[in-house]
Structure formats: C-alpha cells, structure tokens
Amino acid sequence: MRLAFFVLLSAATALAQWQMQDSHTKESLRGVSAVNDRLVWASGTHGTYLLTTDGGRNWAAHQIAGAEDLDFRGVRAFGAEAFLLAAGPGDKSRIYHTVDFGKHWDLQFTNSEPKGFLDCMAFSDERHGMVVGDPVNGRFQILRTEDGGKNWRYADPKNMPGAIDGEGAFAASNSCIAVNGKENAWFVTGGTAARVFHSTDGGENWSVAETPIVHGAPSQGIFSVAFKDAVHGVIAGGDYAHPEQGGNNLAVTDDGGNTWKLAAVQPQKYFSAVCYVWSKAGEVGLVAVGASDSALSKNSLRTWAFFLSEGFNAIGSAHADVYAVGTDGRVAAFRLK
Q: Rounded distance, CA 215 to CA 221, Å?
C-alpha cells in the first residue's frame, strides 16, 4: 500500500513532521493509546504490547505469555490500567486486562462464536467499554461492559439494523468505533456498504445512516471514525487494495451522524485512521494516516498539510500530542503547535 506524497507548500510541510522513535520491536502495530504526553501504550502481532513512560524516548516491548499467536489490533489505556483486544476468527478474538502496567494480565473474554470476529473497541471511561464484531446471523455483534470488564455482555441483536450481505467492519486501526460520553457511540462499515451505525443509549439500540464513501469491493469502505463532540465527526477510508486511488474517501457530519457529506479537502487517498487533536491554545486539528503518507488539516478539512512521507496504520492523541504506529514496529510522535 502506497500513497502519493504531495508537497503543498514548504511552510505547510514544516508544520507537520513525525519524530521517529525506537520501539525495540519489528512486529506490525495497529493499536495505540496515548494517556498523556509521556505515557503511551501500543499493540501488535504475536501477542505484543509496548509501553513508554517518557514520551517515547524509551519504549519497552513485551509479549503476553500464551498469547503469542494472537494479533492485538487494539489497546485502550488509563494509566497503569489497560485493555488489549485481540482480533481474529472465533476464539482468536479475546480481551486482556492489566492494572499494573502489564506485570500481570487477566484474560477477561474469549469469543465462543465460531463465526465471530471482533474488530475494534472504545471506552468512555475505565468502566464503560464497547467492542464491535463482524455480523453473525445477519447482525453486527456489540459487546459491552459497565464494570471495567469484569463482565462482558452482548447487546440484543434484535435492536440492531440488519447487515447487508458482504458488509463488515475493518480491524485495521482500532478506530472503526468512536464514543462520546457513555451514551453516544458510532461504528463504521465497509465492503458492500459504507454505513455509520449510531447508538444514543450506550449501545443498546442502533440506527444506521448511508454515507457517500466508496464501497462495493471487500477492500473498500470506511476504516475509521472520530467525533470531537456529540454532533461533529469525520469518517475516513477508501480502498486499501488501491491506496493511490482518489475519490470519495472522507466525509463529515454536523448532526451527530444522521447525515454525511464529502469533505472538500484534496487529495483524498486511502486513510486507515483519523483523529482529532487539540493544541495547547485550543486549536482543533485533524490528523489522518495511511500506508505511506500522513496528513494534517487545521481548517476543518478544507486543505491538507502533508507530513514528510511516512506511513502508519493507527494513531492516538492526548491533547496536542499524536502518536502513530505501523508495520515493522514503526512508532512516531507529533505535537500540534
């Protein structure tokens, strides 16, 4: 997967440059959770998780014993406490939990549905979490906890609109789901459809909205969703099999996800993850990453400033600080000035 590198203005490019960091691993990384500007977690293949407590000057890479054949596609951390999501078919989809920086891990959940595949997770706080899984018997699976993972329960599938044949979620960056508070949640789909599902009651009941994002092929659709509040959000995706291809890959909403319109910014390439970031002055920016390039918009997706050519799978932000992870253990940081 490669994206074209566009230099819009030398000054604009100077605004956006990743600082590469040594992760001490070559595993493919797809999960990252920035607690603050110093404490960051990441996760990846072969049961791997990473941790830094000094803003990335030193990373420590670890494996969970007995999980070496799992792919940790998502991590969500709250200081010393963290949750890891393993994505895979059947019982390869699992959730692990630690409260002591990974010294001890508890296996909280193992998927017992042979047709199930968990894709991504989000937490509104340490106790309230939600996981999206691909459709089983024609309905997406929603796994919820309200007690920090002591109990994970599936939401009633009858309260979920039916999936279209060939529609699924992408476990590409742990950003196919977003939450705002304990009530609002959104998840996004791809394949034969590119839709946004929305819940206003913590994941119990769901509605669904069509979007203009490209879809049809298994490699096309929405890969990432982010909301800066309960009404303003962005979705990003495209075709990971043809990442150079432009088209309908970014859209925005200003009504909580009921309707979506294409973003004006060009070029629109394949992006696997998008997130909001706030400068110390309160300025809001959007950062998007794809297979070989990254982009920053500071004007609500009217224009881009492209980073120096670096590709990543996933991003996470803590106020002004953004961390990105990718293949071969690639980790980088960026601060919005």
A: 5
Residue 328 inside a domain? The answer is: yes
Q: How many domains does the chain have?
A: 1
Cβ count within 10 A of residue 4: 13
* Mean pLDDT for all residues in the chain: 93
As to burial, measured by CB atoms within 10 angstroms (0-12 exposed, 13-18 middle, 19+ buried), residue 270 is buried
Dump pLDDT digits (tens) for 185-212. Answer: 999 999 999 999 999 999 999 999 999 9
Domain annotation covers residue 219: yes
pTM for this prediction: 0.94
Instruction: State the residue range of the domain holding 18.
Output: 10-335
Is residue 97 domain-resident?
Answer: yes
Domain membership of residue 1 (yes or no) is no
What's the CA gap between 168 and 81, in Å, rounded?
30
Which CATH number do you get for residue 200? 2.130.10.10
Q: What is the dihedral of CA 190, 109, 315, 57, to 10 degrees?
A: -160
Question: How much is the pLDDT for 309?
Answer: 67
Half-sphere exposure of 12 toward its Cβ, with a 13 Å CA cutoff? 14
How many other β-carbons are positioned within 10 Å of the β-carbon of residue 136? 17
